[in-house]
Every structure is written in structure tokens, then in C-alpha cells.
Design a protein that fits this description.
Chain lengths: 239, 399
């Protein structure tokens, strides 16, 4: 082992064995199908490319959420956060949204962020539910610690599920104290909020194999319009 | 009474706007004034339609503010508040002023900036139009009234959630062709009703109404320049002109439960009858209609109450494609309140802006071929104050 390998071993947290998230397919209101699947570390750069234009967008707290997610994804890619994972929603192979989180220990999970690139189709809601499904149904955890950084997030998670307060615990993202999704809350909310079909047909899986930066109606274009987004360089070369 | 023409029409994009209330009013007004090409004529009066600025934007006397912003001194100015029917009421006030000879040219602008508050506050502010002791105090909101109305309508006439979804899909598709529309999102029956995921995509709001049965909360403004026909005849205008052919208005009980038959929208029927009578046309002569589909069920119910279809058969016409773009009577080619959006004070004016464009042949990808007569229903309260308007495209008399 070289000295740099030895140093890396000191910097890299020891990983827990995490069963993978089995992909699923969700029919959206538009009739399009979104495939939700796990993101591998070597796919992170394409996610960063898609997220970069949102770093400038103040509306609905996209700037802070995307900046934090950007850092968390880098940490995932470079093994700097313990037991982190990332799921993506893909429509025709285009990135529609991203969620991530990590394991605190075998029983407790921690939700990090939910970022929607295609708005108006409840993509964020579906992906957040997939994240909860991963923690409770797939990883067999007992609870997930959650905070919201935007009013939309607060409505979607704290009110819609609804989550319980666990204010005695400080969430890793800082800010307000934690809220918590328990197994019981999840089971009650699942019929309303968690959707999707498995197994995903082979042709859909193939379509979702390579993640592409969205070119159509992204959040930036939806907010600013095509011309203004291009003028401001907000599309990050997507169009 | 002097005949009244629409000299200019304009609007902002509806949706969520960063502009101030004054900016929204100004943008729509300037668009309409530019469209009017009035030469050296000036505006005699300004009427602004608005429902909630005093409450949600902390701003009153906004007609005076618009005059000041656009330097329209010394034009007379007043604000009209008539709930969600404020827009068409303001147009009626403008028409009355011209018809009575008190003004030659009137600028009518409807505006609302609802996204200044969150959705809960916006829903509450609109709910303040309900009966304070019999409805509001018990937590009634407009979606809940519409939900009860829809359930009753379904039980009476065999309407199903599929019919409601058809209205929504149609109006979303129309809105895709309207650059001013709030919602640019095509939806499908599979996605909002048939697929197992539809329960998440289209959650209940007030059963049997779901998310895609309800209009969005929007910001926006729309504007018309009205003029007496003799003024128009002295301007360099195209050969045809859009006339306000007839306006009708009627009221009903404040509390919905006090109506002997709550599914009967008698104020819509009476207002439409008046408007048709004054215009000298019948429902069968209307080529395009803009109806107040704040909730999908209302498009169907209003289409019957206005006399386009027999009672209980509006959904059959919908099924047959009669109300689609390309059908015999396209309803809500703009996308309606469901797709274009519903800034409450602006909606009634926006309906007439759309009809003006339709009758001029300026409606672009959503143009109804050969439209000569248009009808709008601006539904205030929960049907307790309704303004109906008939517009007609007429050949201009060059004298």
C-alpha cells in the first residue's frame, strides 16, 4: 500500500453494507414514465452538470438546496460521507429530479435533499417517497430524520405525511431541529404518497441506463422562460 | 345607448410573477393601449377590477395608482370589487360610461397578485366571499363548495370523475397553445385517473374534486380599451371591429344551501339570457365561449345553464368533442381558468381579451376558425353574482 492509499484509508469512512434500491417505474400526470433508480458514484459528474445552473436560482430556495446537494454529491463521489446514497428520477433518460440521504446507523436514516428539475408533475413528491421507501422498506430502518429548507418542502413532508417532531435531535444539515418519519407514519402515508411498479421493463431500464442532462422544460426554463434563461446563462449550456 | 367597441386588448402572462401589483396593471394596460392605436385620443376613464389587493397586497385605490403610473391624468378612475366577477363587472362599468355618453374611451384593467401570500392564505381570502355566518365560519372554502356541488351534480346527471378529467385534459391542452397561460403542462387520462400512480399524481382536494379539477392560484393582469363606435370610426382601424354586443348580470342567494336546487345556476342562466337578448343572438349562434372553470365541474354546469346544451347533457357534448378546439363550440380555447390561470380580479377581463383575439383572428395556434360571436361567463361568489358578455365581430362602416 502506498502512503497516499494509506492516507486515503484514513480519510474515507468505513462503509456499511447497503442493499441497493430496486428500480421502479412511475407513470406521471403527463403520461410519461419516470424510472427511479440508484445513482452510482461514477455517474455523479453528470448530475453535477445538471444541477450547476440551479446554483444561481434564488426562487424557491433552489440556490441553497442545489449548492448543498452539489457538495453532498461530491462527498458521495469521493467517499467523504458515511453511508450516503443517491436516487434519481429519469424521464426518457433525462434527469427529472434527485434525492439523497445517508444512514446514521442501522436503525436510523437521515434524509438530505430533494431537488426537482422537471416541475409541475409531483416529481419531487414521488422521489421523496422513494427515498422513504428505501429507508423503511428496503433498508429496514425504524425512522428517518428530516428537515425542510423551503416552504414547499415543509408542506410536502411535514404537513402531507405528516411527520412528527423530534426536536431533541439536531439534524446534520443544521438549521431547525429534526422531524422524523417513523415506520408507522410511513405505513399510513404509503398508500397515498408512494407509487411505482416493479420490475421495470427492460426497455425502460435500458433507456434509463445513461443519465442525460435535461434539455426541455427544466425548472430554470419554467421560471425564467427560454430566452431569459439563455440570456442569463442559466441553462448551463443545456440548450 | 351608444354602441361600444373593443379598441385594444392586452394581458400579462399569468402565473407566478415577481412584478408588483402596479407593474402587472401597467404591463397589461400598456399592451392594450398600444394595441388600440388611438392616435391623439386620450383615455377618459380608468376602471380597475380587483378583489384582494387591500387584504393581500396592502394596497387600496389602485385605479388611481394606475392613472398615476401611466400618466393618464386627468382621467376619471375607480376600482370595482365584485369577487371573482370583478373583471366583467369592471367592463360593464366601462361600457355603461361610454353608452351613457360620460366617456368616449375607457381603459379597463383587471389585476390580482395572489402569490404574494401562501396558498392557504389565498384560499382563505377567496373564501371570504362566502356567507360569513352560514358558510365561512364553518370553514367553507371555494373548493369545498365546488366539491359538494360536484357530488350533487354527479348524482343528478350521471357525471363521473372521468368527465371532470376530460375538461382538465382539454383545457391543459388548449393552454399549451397559449403563451399567456399559467400552466404549460400536458396531462393524460392515464396519468391523472387510470394509472395506479394517479392517486399520488392527482390527490383529492375536496372529494370528488382532485388537484387537476382545480384552477391554480395565479398572478396576472388583463386589459381592454373600450371606445364608442363613433370614435372608432374616426380612427385608422381594420375593416372589422369587435363590439360589446350584450352584457347581462344576475344574482342569487349568498348561501348556496338556500337555493331550492343548488345544481341550478340560475344567475348564469339569467345573465346569459340578458346578454343574448341584448346582443340579438341565441346560444346556437355562438362560435366560441370562455367559461369560468375555476373547478372542472363548473365548465360543464355553466355550459348547460347558459343554454348551449340541455340540462344534464353538457358532459355528453364534452364526450363528443363538441367543446374541444375544432369542435362545433370550442369552450375555453385559452385554457380557461384551469390552464390559463385565475388571478381572480383579472379573469373576467382576460376572458374578453381572449374572445377579442379569437374574433379578430389573432389567437394563433388556438384560433377557432371563422369565429364571429363569442360568449363569456364570469362567475362570482359561488354563482351568486354572474356577469355574461357577448362579443361580436362586425364589419366597420366607413360612412
Amino acid at each position: 500500500m502506498t502512503s497516499s492509499d494509506a492516507l486515503e484509508a484514513l480519510l474515507r469512512p468505513p462503509a456499511m453494507d447497503m442493499p441497493p434500491y430496486p428500480p421502479k417505474a412511475i407513470t406521471l400526470a403527463s403520461g410519461e414514465t419516470m424510472v427511479v433508480r440508484q445513482v452510482a458514484r461514477d455517474e455523479v459528474p453528470i448530475l453535477l452538470e445538471a444541477i450547476r445552473p440551479l446554483l444561481q436560482m434564488e426562487r424557491d430556495y433552489y440556490d441553497i438546496v442545489s449548492a448543498r446537494l452539489y457538495g453532498e454529491l461530491l462527498a458521495y463521489k469521493r467517499y467523504r460521507v458515511l453511508d450516503e446514497y443517491c436516487l434519481a428520477g429519469l424521464i426518457n433518460g433525462e434527469l427529472a429530479g434527485v434525492v439523497n440521504g445517508r444512514l446514521v446507523d442501522a436503525k436510523v436514516g437521515m434524509s438530505y435533499h430533494t431537488l426537482t428539475l422537471r416541475r409541475g408533475l409531483r416529481v419531487g413528491s414521488h422521489l421523496f417517497a422513494a427515498k422513504m421507501e428505501y429507508h423503511i422498506d428496503i433498508l429496514g430502518q425504524e425512522e428517518v430524520l428530516i428537515v425542510a429548507e423551503s416552504p414547499i418542502g415543509f408542506r410536502r413532508w411535514m404537513i402531507e405525511y405528516p411527520l412528527d417532531k423530534k426536536h431533541e435531535v439536531q439534524h446534520e444539515l443544521g438549521g431547525v431541529p429534526s422531524w422524523v418519519l417513523t415506520v408507522d407514519t410511513y405505513r399510513k402515508a404509503k398508500p397515498r404518497l408512494c407509487a411505482g411498479r416493479r420490475p421495470v421493463p427492460e426497455e425502460l431500464l435500458e433507456e434509463a441506463r445513461v443519465i442525460r442532462v435535461p434539455e426541455g422544460e427544466t425548472a430554470v426554463v419554467q421560471f425564467y422562460g427560454k430566452e431569459e434563461a439563455a440570456d442569463d446563462g442559466l441553462q448551463g449550456g443545456a440548450e | 345607448m351608444r354602441p361600444v367597441a373593443i379598441l385594444g386588448a392586452g394581458m400579462t402572462k399569468f402565473g407566478r410573477s415577481d412584478s408588483t401589483l402596479a407593474d402587472l396593471m401597467s404591463e397589461a394596460s400598456v399592451a392594450a393601449l398600444r394595441d388600440a392605436t388611438m392616435g391623439n385620443r386620450s383615455v377618459d376613464a380608468v376602471v380597475v377590477a380587483n378583489m384582494g389587493a387591500a387584504r393581500i397586497n396592502r394596497q387600496t385605490a389602485i385605479a388611481s395608482a394606475l392613472v398615476d403610473r401611466l400618466n393618464l391624468f386627468p382621467a376619471a378612475a375607480e376600482t370595482v370589487e365584485n369577487g371573482p366577477a370583478s373583471g366583467a363587472s369592471a367592463v360593464k362599468v366601462g361600457v355603461q360610461a361610454i353608452a351613457a355618453g360620460m366617456a368616449d374611451i375607457v381603459l379597463v384593467t383587471g389585476v390580482e397578485k395572489m402569490r404574494a401570500v401562501n396558498n392557504l392564505e389565498a384560499t382563505d381570502f377567496v373564501a371570504s366571499l362566502s356567507h360569513p355566518e352560514a358558510e365561512y365560519v364553518y370553514g367553507v372554502t371555494l373548493p369545498s363548495l365546488a366539491g359538494m356541488f360536484a357530488r350533487l351534480y354527479m348524482s343528478r346527471y350521471g357525471l363521473t370523475r372521468r368527465h371532470l378529467a376530460m375538461v382538465s385534459i382539454k383545457n391543459h391542452a388548449n393552454a399549451m397553445r397559449n403563451p399567456y397561460a399559467h400552466i404549460h403542462q400536458e396531462i393524460t387520462m392515464e396519468g391523472i385517473l387510470d394509472a395506479p400512480e394517479a392517486r399520488v399524481n392527482n390527490p383529492p382536494i375536496a372529494e370528488p374534486l382532485h388537484l387537476y379539477d382545480c384552477c391554480p392560484v395565479s398572478d396576472g393582469a388583463a386589459s381592454l380599451v373600450l371606445a364608442s363606435l363613433d370614435v372608432v370610426q374616426h380612427l385608422d382601424r381594420p375593416d372589422s371591429v369587435v363590439m360589446i354586443a350584450g352584457i347581462g348580470q344576475a344574482t342569487d342567494t349568498h348561501a348556496v344551501h338556500e337555493r331550492s336546487e343548488p345544481t341550478e345556476l340560475s344567475a348564469v342562466r339569467l345573465a346569459a339570457d340578458q346578454a343574448f337578448d341584448r346582443a340579438g343572438v341565441g346560444p346556437g349562434e355562438i362560435d366560441v365561449a370562455e367559461l369560468h372553470d375555476a373547478f372542472t365541474v363548473l365548465e360543464i354546469a355553466e355550459s348547460e345553464a347558459a343554454g348551449f346544451f340541455p340540462r344534464g347533457e353538457g358532459h355528453v357534448a364534452l364526450e363528443q368533442g363538441v367543446t374541444s378546439l375544432g369542435g362545433a363550440l370550442p369552450i375555453n380555447p385559452s385554457g380557461g381558468l384551469k390552464g390559463r390561470g385565475h388571478p381572480v380580479g383579472a379573469t373576467g377581463v382576460a376572458q374578453l381579451v381572449e374572445l377579442t383575439w379569437q374574433l379578430r383572428g389573432d389567437a394563433g395556434a388556438r384560433q377557432v376558425a371563422g369565429a364571429g360571436n363569442g360568449f363569456a361567463c364570469n362567475f362570482g361568489g359561488f354563482g351568486n353574482n354572474v356577469v355574461a358578455t357577448v362579443l361580436r365581430s362586425e364589419r366597420r362602416d366607413h360612412g
